[in-house]
Amino acid sequence: MKTVKVRVPATSANLGPGFDCLGLALGIHNSIQATPADAGTLVIKVEGEGIGQIPTDDRNLVWRAFSAVYETARQRTPGLEITQHNRIPVNSGLGSSASAVAAGLVLANEFLHGRFGKEELMEIGMHIEGHVDNLAAAIMGGLTLACVDEGKVYCRKYPANKDFRAVICVPKLKVNTAESRRRLPSVVLLGDAVYNMGHALLLLAGLVEGQATTVRVGMRDRLHQEQRMKSIPGATEALEAALEAGADGACLSGSGPTILALAKDAFDRISRAMEEGFGEAGVEAEATVVDLEEEGAGTVG
């Protein structure tokens, strides 16, 4: 076996109404390199985002996902030297954990000569990640719809209209996804469930067809955003500011605290408005304009 390097995109999950189902790959990437080593060896280096936060022992998500693939294949896991070059902010709602899991899955599958298909890898990885929305977009790229039925992952990839770009506004706050999820109600009203199903389907159509008005309406949510944004100072203001500045749609990215806006123009105006929205709550934030990414996790070099 030789050194293998994979490149994995950042992702935004939910996109408003598509709770735990919709995901979108973004043009920010982590690169992870793995070199086989003697049995029992595990050396992990982290560069860039997450230094001091990401474990460098057997708790590391890249390693856990890599090992899970080998266990599923009933193969002995080799020793490994891993180097993570991270550009995706950690604990910011941009899929940093999913990118690590996806990297480990793809690295192991490459070492095993492509033994598993992409949906099979998602089934292995979702037990580590906890859900499949970010993971699907990280592995497949593009706009993904994924669900789990009786333990099996079903995923479809759609080409989001190329005229859209994303403005991601990342405040200097961190959100724990598990804690954020605990704030959500265990029971929802039937009307709210129907509202979200309709809007998620509308959003999917709008993103594929490039219809700005459809996207704006389609990104509205009644299941999780309001509850989550109450604990993120400036999030509501930043989202509303993005829409007022000309965004075609805006949402909480994953569990936050990042706010994601989709637009075809006025990117500078939208960026400034989102930063100022967080600023109204005394929170420093940085907005970046990125392309939507069609390619999922894959080997490079």
Structural notes for this entry:
With 301 residues, the chain is an alpha+beta fold. The chain folds into two domains: 4-158 and 293-300, Ribosomal Protein S5, domain 2; 165-291, Alpha-Beta Plaits (2-Layer Sandwich), CATH 3.30.70.890. The protein has ten helices and eleven strands. It has helices spanning 61-72, 96-111, 118-129, 133-140, 177-182, 190-209, 212-218, 225-229, 235-244, 267-279; strands spanning 4-13, 22-37, 42-48, 79-86, 143-149, 152-158, 165-171, 249-252, 259-263, 285-291, 298-300. Strands 1, 2, 3, 4, 5, 6 and 11 form a seven-stranded mixed β-sheet that branches. α2 packs across α4, α6 runs antiparallel to α7 (212-218) and α9 (235-244) runs antiparallel to α10. The longest helix is centred in the middle third of the chain and has 20 residues, at 190-209. The two termini are 15 Å apart.
CATH topology annotation of the largest domain: Ribosomal Protein S5, domain 2
How much helical structure, as a percent, in the residues? 25-40%
Q: Name the CATH architecture of the largest domain.
A: 2-Layer Sandwich
Q: Strand-and-helix sequence, N→C?
A: EEEHEHHHEEEHHHHHEEHEE
Output the number of helix runs.
Answer: 10
Integer count of domains: 2
Mean pLDDT: 95
Rg computed from alpha carbons, rounded to a whole number of angstroms: 19 Å
